[in-house]
Amino acid sequence: MSIDIVHPALSDYLLDHATPADEVLRDLAEETRRLLPDNARMQISHDQGTLLTLLVKLTGTLHAVEVGTFTGYSSICIARGLAPGGRLLACDVSEEWTGTARRYWERAGVADRIDLRIAPAAETLRALPREEYLDFAFIDADKVGYPVYYEELLTRLRPGGVIVLDNVLRGGRVLDPAARDEPDLVIRELNDAITADERVESVLLPVRDGVTVVRKR
Ligand SMILES: C[S@@+](CC[C@H](N)C(=O)[O-])C[C@H]1O[C@@H](n2cnc3c(N)ncnc32)[C@H](O)[C@@H]1O
Hints:
Elements: H1 8-16, H2 23-35, H3 46-58, E1 63-67, H4 73-81, E2 87-92, H5 95-108, E3 114-118, H6 121-126, E4 134-139, H7 146-156, E5 157-166, H8 182-196, E6 200-205, E7 211-216
Parallel strand pairs: 1-2, 1-4, 2-3, 4-5
Antiparallel strand pairs: 5-7, 6-7
Bound molecules: S-adenosylmethionine.
S-adenosylmethionine binds next to helix 4 and strand 2.
């Protein structure tokens, strides 16, 4: 089962009505498609990137974390929204993919604001101080890890801080009881758990493959 979350014609219209990507982001999207055709779909779309930049700005973020960096599109969008002196901790397991990210961070002029940790993200997050100091986090890595990433990040999020989770509709498979793959089951359960979580207020937006925005009370 795979549903168009948004009609394809409207999808193009939405892309055309976000603040346009600059040359760096356009080149990064093009290079990722050209060099990594089998994986390029993992990259966030430009309207998602614009949403991230806006949310980072709206929260006045000094301390941001990203789980799942790939070739760097979302990290550039987050880094560009940081308040002066702000920093982004980027978590990934791939030296190869994040090598591209590092090149584009330089080009975008944000390399000095980003710390990259190459390790399973659960380890990286568990090693962070257990204090409520994070302003913003973006989760876009292995789906089975999402519940751990959500808990570790929420524990460290300040009241009023925001967590954004990508791919929470799983191509519409959250609706399909026959979809029994572990990532589908984990995300369906997490979506229900977040809705019932009294520590937060949240909304699931039909942006691309579904984006949940969570605010800690
Ligand atoms: C969907 S891609 C991220 C796309 C990225 N946000 C962007 O805008 O291009 C998922 C990334 O998660 C990374 N990843 C997978 N398992 C991971 C883990 N256990 N810890 C940290 N990163 C992981 C992959 O190496 C991959 O780069």
